[in-house]
Amino acid sequence: MNxxxxxxxxxxxxxxxxxxxxxxxxxxxxxxAVVVNYAASSQEADALVAGLKxxxxxxxxxxxxxxxADDVRRMFDAAEQQLGRVDVLVNNAGVLKTVPLAxxxxxxxxxxxxxxxxxxxxTLREAASRLNxxxxxxxxxxTTLALNMPGYAVYNATKAAVEAFTHVFAKExxxxxxxxxxxxxxxxxxxxxxDGKTEEQVQNFAKMPxxxxxxxxxxxxxxxxxxxxxxxxxxxxxxxxxxxxxx
Length: 247
Ligand code: NAP
Description:
Strand order of the largest sheet: 3-2-1-4-5-6-7
Strand content: 15-25%
Mean pLDDT: 97
Number of strands: 7
Bound molecules: NADP nicotinamide-adenine-dinucleotide phosphate
C-alpha cells in the first residue's frame, strides 16, 4: 500500500461508477490516496475501493450526499481522519434527465439544482478552509452547454452555474496556490448518457464529433489527472472542453 501519511489525498465525488470511478482509478494509479464518494451505490463503491487496495493504493469509500452540507462536512472529516488533509477535490457527482422545460416538474428542477449546483457549492465552501495550499479543484460542466439542444434547459442551467463558480472561486483563492478549473465533457459512454436513449440516438451522438466516437470515462480521467498533476499547474480558472472536437 502507498504510504498513506505521504500520499496526496484526493476526494472524487460520485465515484461509484462512470467518469468518477475512472478518475478514482487514474488518480490512485498516480499515487493519490483516494476518497471514493457516493450517495447510494455502496456495493459499487466498496468493490472499487477493494480493487484499488488490491493494486496497492490507499482508498476509502465515503457515503455522502453532496447536496447535504452536513454530509459534505462529515466527508471531509472522515477523509482527514483516515487519509490526511485533502489536496485535490474533483466535483464529479451529477445527474441528468432530459425533459422539455415546459414539462419539468418542481421535483426534478430541485433535484438537478440540489445535486449539480448546491452539491458543488457545498464542497467548494468546505474546500476553502480545508484544502491544502497548492491544491487543485476540478469541477464538472458539460459540452451540452454549448449545444443548446432541446431538453437540456435545466441541466445546462446547472452547468452554467458551475462554470460561474469556477471562474470566481479561482480568483477568491488568490494567495493559496490552489487552481480551480472545470472539465466540460462531450458525450461519454456512462449510464448518465446511455440510459433512456435508443441505439440510433446513441449512434447519432457518436457521429457528432469529428473524432467520430463516444468518449470513454478514461478520456476524461486523463484530463482530470492533467489538471490535478504537476503539468496542469499553470492552468487556472479555465473550462476545458474535452469532447473530440464536438463544440
Ligand atoms: P453516472 O455514470 O450517472 O455517475 C454519477 C455518479 O454520481 C454516481 O457515482 C452516483 O453515485 C453519483 N451521485 C449522484 N448523486 C449524488 C449525490 N447526491 N451525492 C454524491 N454522489 C452522487 O454519471 P457520469 O456520466 O459519470 O457523470 C459524471 C459527471 O460528468 C456529471 O457531473 C455529469 O454531469 C458530467 N458529464 C457527463 C457526460 C456524459 O456524457 N456522461 C457529459 C458531460 C458531463 P450514486 O449511485 O451512489 O448516487
